[in-house]
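User: Small ask, check this?
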Amino acid sequence: DAVEAANDAQKLRLVEKAVARFGEDLSGCRFALWGLAFKPNTDDMREAPSRVIVAELTRRGAEVVAYDPVAVEEARRVMGDNPRLRFAEDMMSPLDGADALLIVTEWKMFRAPDFEAIRAALKAPVIIDGRNMYDPAWLRNQDFEYLAIGR
């Protein structure tokens, strides 16, 4: 229905940012994804944006390595049959050699990460933030390419 289509379009804005940055065909790209649950402090995956985002990124050829402090088990149950999706046990390991960090759920633990370690781990310092968690000017000052929704 129309509401569901609008919701999915909203969820895909993060993918649109990735496509604008990396191109329509995402084959060969690997994205670190933080946050699988619908909202923080839950493992609820029912309306989770991550489901639509991961499906579209992988449909375009990308690999996704995802971390969530609570929802990995539930996400594995719901999305685990996707061969281009892997789950991580900690928030930093998905970053190793990834083309960008995508932030989907605003868990408190993601609010003040070690940006130096993030920059060192990523292939290029690109953050695509679906939750507008960080100060764009500060990140650009730290030589990050910061793509946020509505900014």
In short: Residues 2-148 form a domain with the Rossmann fold fold (CATH 3.40.50.720). The helical segments are 2-11, 13-22, 49-59, 72-79, 115-121, 136-141. The mean pLDDT is 95.
